[in-house]
Amino acid sequence: MAASQTLIDFTNTQRTLVAQYLASLAPNASTGSSTQLPPNPPNPLHLLRDSATLLKAHTTKLALLLINKPFTPSAVITVLRDATQTCLTAMMSAVELCRPDIWGVFLHHHVVAKVRAVMREMLSFLDEVLDVAREEDSSNHSKDTLASTGVLWDACDALIQLEKTGIAGLAVLKAQELRDTINDAIQELKEWEEGDGDHDEDDDDSEDDNDNDDDDAHSTTSSPQHSRDDQDEFDDIFSAANSLPKNRPDLKQRLQTSADKLKKIQFLYAAITKRRLKTFTPEIASKKINILTLDKLMHLLKELPESVDDLANAFYELDAQQVDAILATCVENACSAADLLKTDWNGKDDEFTAWVTKWTAVVK
Fold this sequence. Notes:
Mean pLDDT is 87; it is low at 197-222. This protein has three domains: 2-165, Talin, central domain (A middle domain of Talin 1, Up-down Bundle); 197-242; 248-364. Helix 9 (249-275) runs parallel beside helix 12 (320-340) and helix 9 runs antiparallel to helix 13 (351-363). The chain has helices at 2-24, 44-67, 73-97, 100-103, 105-135, 142-194, 199-217, 224-242, 249-275, 282-285, 288-316, 320-340, 351-363. By secondary structure, the protein is mainly α. The relative contact order is 0.09.
């Protein structure tokens, strides 16, 4: 019993430590911006890969110790100490090394998010250790222990994959994801333009309903015309949310123009991915100016789908002026992204340079 209490106390201490790590990795927390780096610091992605691999090995041992008899608290403490004070400490060091002013905001945010996921799952795993230690009967917890271990492994695998993917691979995946988001918006607007084909029947039903309302109006104190006006306004709003009104040819023209420009912006995403992101080698990433350029690019590429969502909402609200303003912003941001990468990573003109010049002229 004393041995189990020692394990409980030790696990609670480690839980407090992991909770502090997790708090320091919160989205609004400051990480790594003012840390004094050691001379010749290691690559943070390599450090994360190695520490995550080791943490998987330690948690494998822990899972076996927790679910098999005899339950040995001292053995659990030994392995748990290595897991928390070696692996997790190394991960936090990697976060400090992956400073946004050196490795870029884009990569730093990915690192923080994935380390945060490991810390979150480690807390759950420690809770499982506490449950087993308190009951000293692992048979009741074998499924929960294995499930908790599996989720923690997945979080570790994401860190290991991060090193394999690299900053260029991450940028490529993100650009493809954002491009797909724009494509989804184009398809939604197309469906909105086409409508569901049921509006004529709805109009007939509305007329029948209004005729009934007129018949009943003599027995009420409200004005029949007032009721009809309210109903018409409601129908207009409801229909606009589902399809492009037939009496708005100005919006139809704007919709066609917007779809055309958004498709061209999609082409830009594909071209940037092929000609610039896939050529972002470690050697290119070693130059700070290129890291800063990539950060600016990813920020612009991320803003565009958000603006496209706003554009769709402006159409649904039948606001032509907002449509024009937001579409202009989309085109401007896309042109800024294209201009940012007009030359290659070494500042020289290439095939993409000529393509960007033509693309910009067409999209504007």
